[in-house]
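so my prof wants the structure for this chain in the tokens format not the other one, which i didnt know existed until like an hour ago. anyway here's the sequence
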Amino acid sequence: MTTERSASEPGDAKQTLLILGATGDLTARLLLPGLGALVAGGGGERLLLVGSATAGWDDDRWRRRVGDSFTAANAKGAQVDAVVRAARYLEADVTVTDDLRRLLEACQGRVAIFFALPPAVTVQACQALAGIELPEHTRLVLEKPFGTGAASAAALNDLLARLVPEDQVYRVDHYLGMSTVLNIVGLRFANRMLESVLNGEHVHSIDVVFDESLALEGRAGYYDRAGALVDMIQSHSLQVLALLAMEAPSTLEARDVRDAKAAVLRATHVWDDDPATWSRRARYTAGKIDGRALPSYVDEEGVDPGRQTETFAEVVLAVDTWRWAGVRFRVRAGKALQALRKEAVITFKQPPWVPVGLTGFDRPDRLRIGFDPDRLCLDVNINGPGDPSELEPVTLEAGLDLGDLPPYGQVLRGVFEGDPTLSVRGDTAVECWRIVEPVLAAWRDDQVPLEEYPAGSATSDDWPSPR
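here's what i got, hopefully its the right format
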């Protein structure tokens, strides 16, 4: 079967980005703006952009969608205009082998297939692709969650391995934008005075916090089946934990960084292997955020109250390595809270002794690494401006480099350049499910009560936590 080429399509495209689920919110809100920024910066050279979905769009409507998203990212220039003019749209059912074959025949050069689809549809599309001989060096880009548990993640890995080699599979976690990865690695391993105290001898606990002021925002179709534990902790939080706890990789090459992360995740489990004690869950009730009234989660459109879906999750974990033995890692994520807060907080142990006469010493030192925006804060105690024997807490703060691209632009640059450092390797995807599965089981058995909090509640630091 042949496909007639558009008059505006380049005949010598170096690569094609084929987006399955092109009419969806993810594509318009995150993927296309990231692509626009990448192209404007000189990435995506000679790129053919092909969108596909079941909606009856045509090339003109798709080009308007692409152009609007590029404009939103302030992406300009001749190369940006060329990508928009050449963009194509093909209606297709991605679960049908013949439709996928038709889409691939419209591609040129090296092909990257981005599955901007619900997880279950992604699996069906991969099953349909198994009936096609894919072009050499085809790259597959998948959104989380990867499977619904350790067994299904392993089965998905097996399916993907039938299609392409593992190093051509990109499991996207946009929270691992390259700037964030490099900031954590640089902070830890290029500063001896910090790295020397990042261990169980000096660290009391580490928190990985993803508090959001956003509520459901029309995502009930996905979120009500996932919840905070799967949506955030099973994926983003554990990836950040791995970066914070890993040993120094020999290089920043993908294999070395991913091996170091995998070793940490294999050593991670729920504290005392007791999820009933060391986890908690809650969901928001009606409230206000920035003067905007929000309904209770159970009253949001598309929500099934019977699912008992949590909008806040917290788990305390142990990392059984020489460096981190005895240190509690608390990972938490919540929606509809008063303020946005995304950071890792390293709390140090109190000094073994403070000279008699010093007063006001009641706060431990903390190193806080913020994400989106990336920043570094060090909370320490110093002598106050009045009585020098009275200590005062102060914060030393510095901004960290945000990088030259938004997260999805960084992800796509890795795909186009064949660098999987920012993607989640298959074995670690399985490990992440292994870590949270005991928690999911305890929650299904109602061993952990489902608490409630009003939308707009203050940071969950103020709530009682597991022991």
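also thought this was worth mentioning. DSSP finds twelve helices and 18 strands in the chain.
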